[in-house]
Recover the amino acids of this structure.
């Protein structure tokens, strides 16, 4: 674990210095960091607990909409809105999980898609609350200690702290009982039950944690966009992107989501200038490559081989 | 209550439902034999749509004419995809196969985007606005043709499954893959054939629908896939007859829901029913496959 | 001598098939109970019903004074049942040590303590040197020992072994019998489902024979082997 913390600190410092370099692409940086955070949060449920969610955009949307509506309709400061969003995310995950965890893998994924779709339709149609299809603007935001929340560099640091937080949480869990309970349930649910673990409770905890952390990132995203629209936020493709980022990077690993996020967001940017909006093509091709050749994802395969090598050297 | 408009809506619902049924039957057929949820199924439908669009804009052909090529091509391409790609992950966890089809869906949708651009496309047919009258009810000719195409395809499928040796082999493989292998059936070949059939059905649905709808490379695919899921889950995955009923139910629920309840939530009704079935009776209204752990 | 486990008139029915028909058994402290029978006799089903992996249609299971008939498997583990699985179920993406850690965490919430217990458990089964090997790389005999280590790390009151001797070659079989013997020597009560008569003869204090879901004989190992009902059940009537 110690080496992970060292890596985290090192990366944090490097990332913190990044905006000061000339020609720094701050917006891309924010995207990479937000995606890292969302992917790492998704990983808790999809990688560690083994429940494939294709509806995580719901939680992002929750965070973004709460911040937007909170500030434009209720004059709430974003940090309160986000806290509220996280609470609602927790409750939603609890109910959603209780209802659907009995379903086998692919069917659980289908249910997540259906729920996210329903949320999208609600966001479009309940205009009195969400501004409907035309969306919500965030006009003004408070300035805590004189910090301008609309400034891109400030948002970058917020996103950086968020990404680091999610990774820190993952590192913490990885060595504790909860982390092992998660992986046990994922690898072999019956054996886990025989070991005294209640799989439903574990999955619920993972779902709640995952949802809350994703919503937190959603709040920052809302501030970043300052204009929230249902199609952008409650988007199936968005959910798919988050899930694929982790699967390509490596489910159940600590750094897989971050590697996936960096790889996909950056190449997406490069791709976009050459191939217009077909950058999802990259995701499609990569997921096929991963499935056929690297089932544990980039970091996962690397870690797997490393363990084998370390043991062989020992013997 | 206005009986005329009710029956009007009902007939529209049934006809649209028939096309949904054809999409659903393709998906459920594949599921029955390969035990996999095909995320790319809706994109296959869109391929059919674009096929008709191309032939219409280049040669001026009526979409139904393109079926001559679309059906066999769809079958061959589908079989190839299964052989080259999906056959490799057939024995992995079901989620892996699902992810493979997801990747496939993304690749297809985005290739279509690259080739055709993002604006929605459709075809103009001379009979687009024509209707036939049945008493006081007017039935759109386009919808009627779609319903007829579905009837034809499903009848052909029925004949194939029940009256040919291939069909028997397919049913045996769906029932019990290991058992089928033991009696000498080449299940790998059957799987490729079935996937090809599924795509042929999807492509036909696409061709039937293009006079009615617009094809948009990225969103339309996902929309149809979701509808296909709703249909097959409602009926029970692997159960063809039930998929037909499921499709009809979905069509009717959507049209009636949109007419008598809030039309904006039209798509949500199907989804809500879908969720309800998944949670309450996961085997579907008629099905036997276990979806619960 | 105290009864730690009692199963009363257990019936397990799946649809129209009665897998276990009105079987009762008891287990005392420090006793090793053998459960044998030909294929399809219902011994695994009974085993699963007692440990919580198959539903009991009628009957009662009492464990350490508690009625656990309808308790989920993980609760029964928490009460003190530790079982192995006939088809090994390692957590494939984890190392041998991590596999056992999962179990050790049941009674030891802190990593340091759990690791201590896990290592001790591995030592007991002779897998200490492979602690950092990926569990998916183990051969059958070692996987069996891993199953045992996982069960031991739960610090169970009663050990439930599901055909732990199956498929082992003669040297490995001998090792496993010795291993189980050292465990029983400490006074651990054990229920073992077995096909390998050698293990039953050497280890079991009391043996129950099932056939077609019914209990057909009971007694010491030598008694039941020579019981003509048992012989008939295994070999079939002529």
């Amino acid at each position: 674990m110690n080496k992970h913390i060292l890596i985290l600190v090192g990366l944090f410092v490097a990332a913190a210095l990044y905006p000061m370099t000339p020609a720094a692409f701050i917006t891309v940086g924010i995207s990479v960091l937000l995606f890292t955070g969302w992917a790492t949060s998704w990983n808790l449920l999809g990688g560690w607990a083994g429940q494939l969610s294709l509806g995580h955009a719901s939680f992002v949307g929750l965070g973004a909409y709460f911040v937007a509506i909170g500030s434009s309709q209720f004059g709430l400061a974003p940090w309160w809105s986000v806290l509220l969003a996280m609470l609602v995310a927790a409750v939603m995950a609890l109910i959603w999980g209780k209802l659907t965890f009995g379903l086998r893998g692919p069917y659980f994924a289908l249910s997540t898609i259906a729920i996210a779709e329903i949320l999208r339709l609600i966001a479009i149609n309940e205009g009195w609350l969400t501004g409907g299809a035309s969306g919500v603007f965030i006009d003004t935001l408070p300035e805590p200690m004189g910090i301008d929340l609309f400034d891109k560099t400030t948002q970058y640091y917020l996103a950086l702290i968020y990404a680091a937080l999610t990774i820190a949480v993952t590192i913490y869990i990885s060595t504790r009982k909860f982390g092992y309970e998660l992986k046990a349930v994922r690898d072999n649910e019956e054996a886990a039950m025989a070991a005294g673990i209640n799989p439903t409770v574990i999955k619920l905890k993972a779902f709640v944690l995952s949802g809350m952390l994703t919503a937190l990132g959603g709040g920052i995203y809302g501030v970043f966009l300052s204009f929230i629209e249902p199609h952008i936020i409650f988007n199936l493709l968005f959910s798919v992107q988050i899930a694929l980022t982790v699967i390509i990077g490596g489910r159940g690993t600590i750094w897989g989501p971050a590697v996936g996020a960096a790889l996909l967001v950056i190449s997406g940017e490069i791709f976009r200038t050459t191939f217009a909006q077909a950058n999802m093509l990259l995701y499609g091709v990569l997921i096929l490559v991963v499935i056929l050749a690297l089932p544990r994802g980039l970091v996962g395969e690397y870690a797997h081989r490393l363990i084998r090598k370390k043991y062989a050297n020992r013997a | 209550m206005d009986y005329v408009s009710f029956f009007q809506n009902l007939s529209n619902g049934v006809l649209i439902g028939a096309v949904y049924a054809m999409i659903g039957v393709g998906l459920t057929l594949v599921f029955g034999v390969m035990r996999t949820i095909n995320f790319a199924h809706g994109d296959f439908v869109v391929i059919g749509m674009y096929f008709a669009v191309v032939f219409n804009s280049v040669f001026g052909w009526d979409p139904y004419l393109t079926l001559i090529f679309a059906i066999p091509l769809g079958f061959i391409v589908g079989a190839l995809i299964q052989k080259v790609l999906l056959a490799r992950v057939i024995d992995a966890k079901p989620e892996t196969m699902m992810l493979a089809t997801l990747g496939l869906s993304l690749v297809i949708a985005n290739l279509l985007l690259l080739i055709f651009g993002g604006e929605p496309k459709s075809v103009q047919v001379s009979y687009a606005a024509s209707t036939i009258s049945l008493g006081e009810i007017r039935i759109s000719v386009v919808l009627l043709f779609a319903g007829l195409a579905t009837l034809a395809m499903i009848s052909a499928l029925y004949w194939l499954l029940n009256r040919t040796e291939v069909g028997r082999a397919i049913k045996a493989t769906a029932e019990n893959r290991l058992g089928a292998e033991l009696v000498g059936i080449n299940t790998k070949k059957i799987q490729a054939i079935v996937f090809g059939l599924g795509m042929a059905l999807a492509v036909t649905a696409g061709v039937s629908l293009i006079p009615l709808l617009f094809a948009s490379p990225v969103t339309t695919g996902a929309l149809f896939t979701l509808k296909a899921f709703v249909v097959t889950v409602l009926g029970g995955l692997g159960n063809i007859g039930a998929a037909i009923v499921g499709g009809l139910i979905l069509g009717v629920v959507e049209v009636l829901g949109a007419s008598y309840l809030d039309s904006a939530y039209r798509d949500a009704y199907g989804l809500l029913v879908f969720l309800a079935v998944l949670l309450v009776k996961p085997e579907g209204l008629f099905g036997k496959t276990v979806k619960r752990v | 001598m105290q009864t730690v486990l009692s199963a009363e008139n257990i019936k397990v029915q799946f649809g129209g098939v009665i897998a276990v028909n009105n079987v009762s058994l008891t287990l005392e402290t420090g006793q090793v109970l053998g459960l044998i029978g030909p294929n399809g006799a219902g011994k695994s089903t009974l085993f699963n019903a007692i440990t919580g992996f198959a539903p009991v249609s009628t009957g009662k299971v009492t464990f350490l004074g508690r009625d656990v008939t309808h308790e989920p498997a993980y609760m029964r583990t928490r009460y003190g049942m530790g079982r192995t699985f006939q088809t090994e179920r390692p957590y494939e993406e984890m190392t041998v040590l991590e596999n056992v850690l999962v179990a050790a965490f049941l009674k030891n919430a802190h990593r340091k303590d759990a690791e201590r217990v896990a290592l001790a458990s591995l030592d007991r089964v002779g897998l200490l040197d492979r602690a950092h090997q990926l569990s998916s790389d183990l051969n059958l005999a070692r996987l069996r020992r891993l199953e045992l280590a996982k069960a031991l790390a739960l610090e169970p009151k009663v050990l439930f072994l599901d055909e732990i001797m199956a498929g082992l070659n003669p040297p490995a079989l001998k090792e496993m019998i010795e291993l189980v013997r050292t465990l029983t020597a400490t006074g651990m009560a054990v229920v073992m489902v077995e096909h390998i008569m050698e293990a039953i003869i050497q280890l079991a204090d009391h043996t129950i024979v099932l056939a077609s879901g019914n209990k057909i004989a009971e007694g010491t190992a030598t008694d039941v082997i020579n019981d003509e009902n048992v012989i008939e059940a295994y070999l079939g009537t002529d």
Remarks:
- The two ends of chain A are 23 Å apart (CA to CA).
- The first strand of chain A starts at residue 136 and ends at 137.
- DSSP finds 15 helices and two strands in chain A.
